[in-house]
Design goal:
binds phenylalanine, single chain, globular, 452 residues, mainly alpha
Length: 452
């Protein structure tokens, strides 16, 4: 059994700090921007049900596997996979799982920063009161005008990426930990208040039925894949973000308990976001298929009508910026640790270079929303294509391979020792990670590409 390793990048000050950071990574645009619009595009109810099933049966066991690998390897995902494969006398090609994760993180960060830029712009828009009393058409129109202006998008994208680089360059304790402590609980409270407002629109039960009454006729291979991808995206799984955060976790903390807490918090935020948004959608006669602009087309209507909406809405978008920020840093972290370990860079340079690279690709995404919107592949614009490949293909594939490594390649002794589990709980995890998660992911991926 290998000796307990130490990470050269630091360690969390407590288990709570890890939970906060991992929740900060998980809760982000994925919950509030992405979940409602993907649910709307895939017909609601049945999608939500599959999503919840994916979180419970694939997400939680994969999260346990990912944290466990991180804590045992204690390096960048690439070197962690290399070292652990050596420990288990397996092929060191497993390091390419870390490489794929790094690439996925890079792709996600590139468009994530663009969308985070939208939320920043909306802090100021809502604060200026432009949405006071605005109709649904005016709010939608304002969003359309906004995304067709590349210069404006570029400014916000740049500011957000610089903010991300700054936090990551400050390192684990001073940078990553502090941001999450107060912001996440506040966001949660605000979201609950929004649901309260949504209840008063008189369309709450319609939204409940839409989200929770499954209409299986709307379930297709593509929508099941979308639900799986959304589960991985929202839980930050399959690319090494949770692995690198796990590598800063102390040896004494319980991995299973933390994984369940993080998944539960992340899922509640997504469901609350749905319950806040859909009643307003129905109250204003909008269609649920509003696409990726959904939150920006729907919430400002409510902020423009409710008492104190300007203040409340400003605060809401501000917290969304922070939620996106704490997720973005975890997207950059795996690349940064790899550059530090393998290229001898210091943290600041590593953060700056990788951030600049992701920024550049983000510029292409940003232009694909307006100037280059005519160029499409498989009916998708560049930004949609990057989002699809990274989220629906790379993350599930990464998660599948992590589960395979943790439950097939790693010895029973190693995983038991690292998870501090025994008896039936350990057996349950092992069955989920050995069979359920890999088979589910493989079947969904193969069905979606038309092989099964
Ligand atoms: N989970 C984040 C969100 O929901 C996005 C993310 C994906 C972060 C993958 C890290 C890794 O917004």
């Amino acid at each position: 059994m290998p000796a307990k390793r130490k990470s050269i990048h630091g360690e969390w000050s407590s288990r709570l700090a890890f939970i906060l950071a991992a929740t900060g990574s998980a809760v982000g645009l994925g919950n509030i921007w992405r979940f409602p619009y993907v649910a709307g595009e895939n017909g609601g109810g049945a999608f939500v049900l599959v999503y919840l099933l994916c979180v419970a049966s694939v997400g939680i066991p994969v999260m346990m596997a990912e944290v466990m690998l991180g804590r045992r390897g204690r390096q960048s995902p690439v070197n962690t996979m290399y070292t652990l494969a050596e420990d288990e006398r397996s092929s060191t090609h497993w390091q390419y799982l870390g490489v794929m994760g790094m690439v996925a993180g890079f792709l996600i960060l590139s468009f994530y920063s663009v969308v985070a830029g939208w939320t920043m712009a909306y802090v100021f828009r809502v604060a200026s009161g432009v949405f006071d009393g605005a109709t649904a058409e005016q709010v939608s129109g304002a969003f359309t005008v906004f995304v067709s202006d590349p210069e404006r998008l570029l400014g916000w994208h740049t500011i957000f990426m610089v903010m991300t680089i700054i936090v990551v360059s400050r390192g684990v304790k001073s940078g990553l930990e502090q941001a999450v402590r107060f912001l996440m609980p506040t966001l949660f409270v605000l979201l609950v208040a929004m649901v309260g407002y949504a209840m008063s629109t008189g369309h709450f039960s319609e939204a409940l039925a839409y989200l929770f009454r499954p209409d299986f006729s709307r379930l297709t291979g593509d929508s099941i894949l979308a639900a799986l991808g959304q589960a991985f995206f929202s839980l930050s799984l399959g690319m090494g973000a949770i692995m690198i955060y796990g590598s800063y976790l102390s040896h004494t903390a319980s991995i299973p308990r933390t994984a369940v807490i993080i998944a539960a918090m992340d899922t509640s935020v997504a469901l609350l976001a749905g319950l806040a948004i859909f009643p307003i959608v129905f109250a204003h006669g909008l269609e649920p298929e509003l696409g990726s602009g959904m939150v920006f087309k729907v919430l400002p209507i409510a902020f423009g009508q409710m008492p104190g909406g300007t203040l409340f809405g400003t605060l809401f978008f501000l917290l969304l910026v922070f939620a996106a920020w704490t997720s973005a840093i975890s997207l950059l972290e795996p690349m940064v640790t790899w550059l530090v370990e393998n290229r001898g860079m210091n943290r600041v340079m590593a953060a700056a270079w990788s951030g600049l690279a992701a920024w550049s690709l983000g510029v292409v995404s940003l232009l694909s929303l307006n100037v280059w919107s005519g160029y499409t592949l498989f009916g998708k614009s560049f930004i949609e294509l990057v989002e699809f490949i990274a989220t629906n293909v790379m993350l599930p594939l990464g998660g599948l391979l992590m589960a395979v490594f943790a439950a097939w390649v790693m010895s029973r002794e190693s995983s038991q020792d690292e998870l501090h589990l025994s008896g039936s709980t350990y057996r349950t995890w092992r069955v989920l990670a050995r069979y359920v998660a890999p088979v589910a992911v493989a079947v969904i991926l193969l069905t979606a590409i038309g092989i099964l």
